[in-house]
Amino acid sequence: MSVHLCPDCGYAYDEAQGDRREGYAPGTPFEQLPDDFVCPDCAVRAKSDFVRQDQ
Amino acid sequence: MKTFAMVHPEKGAIVYRDRKRFLWISALFFPLVALSGIGLYSLNGREWAFVVPLVLFYGGTALFDWLLGEDTSNPPEELVSQLEDDKFYRWLPILTVPMHFAALILIAGFAGTHDVSWAAMLALALTAGLYSGLGVNTAHELGHKKTELERRLARIVSAVPAYGHFCVEHNRGHHRHVATPADPASSRMGENIYKFACREIPGAFRRGWIAEQERLARQGKSAWHHENEILQSYALTAVLQIGLVAVFGWLMVPFLAVHNFFAWWQLTSANYIEHYGLLRKRNANGTFEHCQPYHSWNANHVASNVVLFHLERHSDHHAHPTRRYQTLRSFPDLPSLPNGYMGMYFVALFPPLWYRVMDQRLLSLPHINGDLSLVNVDPARRSVLEARYSKSLPRAVAA
Prior knowledge:
Chain A is mostly beta strands.
């Protein structure tokens, strides 16, 4: 389980927590998010822009 | 005036004072402008008084923009977090939320209980719509923030002008697709504001609804579930506006129709001027490049920026949508409008004047340099614009 950060606004997608409001259940891997996923907070960074926190 | 300061390990002491700090308080007094027509009428009994708020909004703000000029100062990046955490700034937009409800109820109440002409009634409805349009701007500022309180208040204030889909559509639709041909909230070169409104208003509603439907579907819920944030806002609209009809009678139906439309028109006007003709390039994989500073029209005029919570520093807003209004920055060489947004809203009402002011300005931007292939052009007007401008500006040399 890893955490992926939006490089613009700092939104964190924690795989362990998922994102209930966005409809991603706890345990949903970041890779399984839709290809057109964008940051739920700022919407100006796409899935490919996100950075794994441990990198 | 409050001083923000820190000692930076390399740069030493960094100090900043926000020159507009106390001007932001004026947001709390705008209801008085909206109510000034009623106030004047009760003093002199003349119906022309009802037009005063409309003149003050468009003409007065443009005049003050001209008189006060521009403010290009920026907070140092190192002090942004201090400004963002300052409760003074945070509470001002929040405090305006109940004022939007109060202003509509007071103006509707006056209209519903006084025997005035239809022209006066129209002016009252337009005035109420104008101030509710500022409510959409409040919703814009609050709806981009991360706290649940601010997001909830954004949906609540969107209910006043019956524009409950705004936050969903704006954040998840417009910001994602801005300055692309597919964005109903980005105007195209050669597209007048009336044609744009016919594309923007229904297009924005459709896109907002679909985005919310998809979010709820991922949760396994119907689009009609009570957690639909668009429906929550519209439910509040129903309570407010049906309540006004119930209390003040059927006269409220046309009054509220005009009010709602004119509030929407304020957003349409903003969307029309904010990205006129600007176009993001496609990447090799078919996606669009990130929104760049040159994909928004800006203005640094003090008066209208104070009215609109720095909305006119639009490039920085699109680069960093969650930044608070007090920390939005101006940069040199951004696409710039000749007047603040209110003045340009007025210019946009007259398409030939708008094209005269804006088209050469658009084509002269350094990243466009007269090349219409780099402009978001109305397809129906492309051949006319190509014929008109092909010889008047130097074209970029093809690589």
